[in-house]
Amino acid sequence: MKSNSQPIKVLYVMGCSRCGSTILDSIMGAHPDAIGLGELEKYPAVRDSLNDYCGCGVLVQECPFWEEVCARWMQQVNGTLAEFESLARRYCRLRQLPRLLVVGEQKSIRFRRYSEYICAMFQTVAQVSGASIFIDSSKNPARALALRRVKGIDIRLLHLVRDPRGVAASLLKSWARDPAAGIQSDLEGRPARQAAKAWNLSGRLSDLVGRCYAPKTCMRIQYESILNNTAESIRSIGHLLNVDYTDVGLSVASGEAVEIGHVVAGNRLRMLGSTSLKTKDNWPEVLGDDDRRMVERICGRRMHKYGYGLT
Ligand SMILES: [Zn+2]
User: Domains in the chain, ordered, with CATH?
Assistant: First the structure.
């Protein structure tokens, strides 16, 4: 069991939608001392839903792991999920991002209460799971900034970027509602122009938040580098955490599947029980020439910054 006085080690994965965070969450959670928790910020919202399943295969509200965590968590803070949600809305909505850039906000009574909730949540996950490293792939830059301000958390920020042409190709496809397969509602495909603009905005906000972290505590990595240079990429993320991920990296690189645990929210991959890393992104076969050119026109400058070449 983890002592309350030890800093809580968190890897926070920040990025845009369809950036590959769900598979990375499970890969980093495969270390014996770690646990992948998925899009943790959505936990209070999905806990009472009849549509949202945990990665272990049952509704989140029926998952014994999360029920025990939630009961201990609320007892430790003498609070309610409603109070926590209200605080999280104040600090984790994108439009609230400037609030946390203001010096002094983190000293407010409300932020101190938010911090109590956050620390207690990770502490209770540690108690129930035995893990000492927590993977939170909520992706949201505002939450990354809020957690950075919470005392008692040793947070490392990973900005996961994916080629916007891959993101656009992934978002083009529509999905029919299938909650047990991890799709909570009908998902309409999104036009490439919309995907490109969202990618740009996410990159801009993520870069802004990244500058609030000390250089040693954050890094940016391409999803494609995880696909193409797996062992070294996973090891370098381990370095960010000061944890040896060599064995995990070699195992994933060799094609071995990783188990998916009690991952909440995230994409449909989390419902597969286990998954392995695919070997390449298939956007060149999916994205038409017109859409590709549009994405490159909208995202070109930032693509260059992140190391992506234009075709
Ligand atoms: Zn579960």
Answer: 8-305 (3.40.50.300)
Determine if residue 83 is left, alpha or beta; phi over 0 gives left, psi from -120 to 50 gives alpha, anything else beta.
Answer: alpha
Residue 47 C-alpha to ligand 1 middle, in angstroms?
A: 11
Give pLDDT, residue 70.
Answer: 95
Q: Give residue 177 CA to ligand 1 midpoint distance, Å.
A: 21
pTM: predicted TM-score of the whole model, two decimal places: 0.92
The rounded distance, in Å, linking the Cα atoms of 288 and 14 is: 28
Using CA atoms, how far apart are residues 74 and 120, in angstroms rounded to an integer? 8
Distance 283 CA to ligand 1 centre (A): 32
Residue stretches of the chain with pLDDT short of 70:
1-5, 103-104, 174-187, 266-273
CA of 56 to the centre of ligand 1 (A): 4
Ligand 1 centre distance from Cα of residue 61 (Å): 9
